[in-house]
């Protein structure tokens, strides 16, 4: 080994290699007089790429970084003792082979979406002819000078065709409070032909008080003489109500942006609801194109 010269294209030339007493090839850098550093830090052991020993050393330092340290940090930790030729490429190659990293970085499979429900395409298509309803909250309001606090709830109605919303204040979780909010919507938006809502048992897991929210028999008796058809989603299936759950999220975000942490009364809460309703109904329903040649929807 000592009698042969290295090729001019060898990557070892820039490392000024030398062989120590144990037969290890070390790089001879400019840290000879840095006595505060360890011997391995001053004269790093040169490792060949694509070698099993090198791969095991990389694996050790990669696992010390808990699989999240990244290529540069692993390479920095290795450089305190070893110098791997094309070290970053060697580390990246192992990161692609590491089962734990591959599992952590794997992309989640996308859900194949089913066709939109038939109810969303039925005629007539005027607003709120077919409606979904859901509850949100509670919102705490102050009553009078005694600072007595009461819970108020958001009752949201959304049109299945236009995605417009109507927000009402519900003063309780009983069926009578819901029917008051329902007829408040009917008096201003018109009588819907079909309504979709969660089944009453869907609310049990979140809040025991919501069990009595949708008394199906009482609601059916109240609306049957007006020709309204009510559809209840299956129990324990909140994913069936995505059309109104997304609107609940948007409405609560708008309401909390208006109210913040302020103490409010019922009148101020109603004003915040109407303001949020106007804000949501003014949103664009499609992507707003920047091309002036596109038709304006």
UniProtKB/TrEMBL annotation:
PROSITE patterns: INTEGRASE (PS50994). One of its GO terms (molecular function) is nucleic acid binding. It comes from the Eukaryota. InterPro entries: Integrase_cat-core, Integrase_H2C2, RNaseH-like_sf, RNaseH_sf. Residues 120-297 form the Integrase catalytic domain. It holds the Pfam family Integrase_H2C2. One of its GO terms (biological process) is DNA integration. PANTHER family: GAG-LIKE PROTEIN, PHD-TYPE DOMAIN-CONTAINING PROTEIN. This is Integrase catalytic domain-containing protein. It comes from Mytilus coruscus.
